[in-house]
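My current task is to audit a protein record that another person submitted. Thanks in advance; the entry in question is below:
***
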Amino acid sequence: MSGIIAQNSGRHTGLVKASSGGGGVWNLIETLTSDGSDSDLSFTSGIDSTYDEYVFKFINIHPETDSTDFSFNFSTDSGSNYNVTKTTTFFSALHTEDGSETSLAYRTGNDLAQGTGFQATGGGNLGNDNDQCVSGYMHLFSPSDTTFVKHFISKFNFTEYRDRSYNGFIAGYGNTTSAIDAVQFKMTADEIQGGSISLYGIS
């Protein structure tokens, strides 16, 4: 990971957000902010047995290259390798700015069937205009469990290079009983040139 200009590391005891629906409290663990020249943003600490649920929030992630994709993968060896086997589902909705096109569809080309590669979030259509970016979140459940596979659910919205709003829904599991202890985010081509990712533990 290169060029990070802001990083709040360590486990914070301050309570960030309490759910109004009877759920848990969001505890900020770490925030990584791109300085415009990051090959990736990687969380290599803070993911352990402290919480049963972790949430990553992505705010205004901006790519260097047009027609690229924001993607993620998991590690079971503290970030030495990001290659956890995954089975996932992917569907999306989209709408053009001028209203000329809409779509709601399952995206077979974006899901993984026992794949070890990075999970893409949008089919390679993210735009790099100055006002284009991707935001969203991912929930990771019981990453330190050594009995069951590791489920995750994510939702993203981004502006396509063709000026369309693209809303992607991804869910699946890391097919491993080893503990997941690191997560990496990167573009499928070139660098991350802006935005931040915050990691929360839900208690």
